[in-house]
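Lab meeting, item 3. Inverse folding demo.
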């Protein structure tokens, strides 16, 4: 399969949201909402740099009282046909994960 602009954005957004779900679902005993957005910030011959940002809201119930907490997330991804790297909380939305110790995700 060849990576396209749309498939790179879709992969990065889905992966970032899944990480939030996996991290927060135990704390969110009554509900969890995760919404992300992905954009291509650089298309280079080697692949795509994708920036993902979004927010989350999770709901808890303790001693009969509903608690609500909000948070945000952002990451940059480098994606091509054979590699996906993630840079969590980059300084700039254009930071290339290959140049900033990004972690392999696929």
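The presenter then showed the designed sequence:
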């Amino acid at each position: 399969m060849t990576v396209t602009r749309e498939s790179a954005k879709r992969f990065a957004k889905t992966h970032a949201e899944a990480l939030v779900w996996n991290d927060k679902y135990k704390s969110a005993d009554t509900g969890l909402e995760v919404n992300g957005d992905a954009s291509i910030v650089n298309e280079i011959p080697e692949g795509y740099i994708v920036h993902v940002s979004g927010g989350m809201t999770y709901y808890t119930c303790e001693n009969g009282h509903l608690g609500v907490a909000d948070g945000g997330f952002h990451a940059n991804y480098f994606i091509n046909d054979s590699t996906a790297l993630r840079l969590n909380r980059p300084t700039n939305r254009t930071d290339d994960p290959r140049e900033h110790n990004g972690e392999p995700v696929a």
